[in-house]
TrEMBL record:
Domain Acyltransferase: 19-169
Organism from which the protein derives: Acetobacter pasteurianus subsp. pasteurianus
GO biological process: lipopolysaccharide biosynthetic process
Protein's name according to its UniProt entry: O-acetyltransferase
Residue spans crossing the bilayer: 44-67, 88-106, 112-130
Broad enzyme group: transferase
Length: 181
């Protein structure tokens, strides 16, 4: 099928890597880092996380086009989740092991941080952090070594729901190119 003068398969192939997306990611990273160093330097720097969520939605949708076109839901989900696990798990495990060791050694009351780290393994640290503080900017979250995992938890929850929603609603069917006419 064609979308204008570009075929669907060409559109999917061209999606694989975009330098402009990496540029936007770099800006978002700098925004968050500057905000964490000193909130007065860039008061809205935390919006870099929102930029990451938007980029993730764009990239996930493109990835699902690659995986989802012509596949059944079980095959789509297996391929999609396997790729995400291979990408996220090594860095997450390394971070949790190193931070847990540091918390255990340094923090006189490590229970809350360690609980947050444990829940981060399963993508639920955001719920726990919300339950214990209800404010990302509260002093209790600043002392938690795993506060930064809240955004990964949100992203992992989106990974669980988004492919199913797209497939069930028919967004990833052969009718997709007709959607753009």
């Amino acid at each position: 099928m064609n979308i204008g003068s570009i075929s669907f398969s060409e559109t999917v192939k061209k999606f694989s890597y975009r330098k402009d997306i990496d540029g936007i990611r770099a800006i978002a990273i700098l925004m968050v880092i500057i905000n964490h160093l000193n909130t007065k330097w860039l008061p809205g720097g935390y919006l870099g996380v929102d930029i990451f969520f938007v980029i993730s939605g764009f990239v996930i949708t493109g990835s699902l086009f690659n995986y989802g076109h012509g596949k059944g839901l079980p095959s789509l989900l297996y391929d999609f989740y396997a790729k995400r696990l291979r990408r996220i798990t090594p860095a997450l495990l390394t971070n949790i092991v190193i931070c847990s060791a540091a918390v255990w050694i340094i923090d006189p009351q490590p229970q809350i941080s360690l609980q947050t780290g444990f829940l981060a393994l399963f993508g639920f640290s955001n719920f726990y952090l919300w339950k214990i503080s209800q404010d990302y900017f509260s002093p209790s979250t600043k002392l938690n070594a795993f506060t930064h995992t809240w955004s990964l938890g949100v992203e992992e929850q989106i990974y669980l729901l988004y492919p199913c929603i797209l497939k069930i609603t028919g967004f990833l069917t052969k009718r997709l190119p007709d959607f753009f006419h």
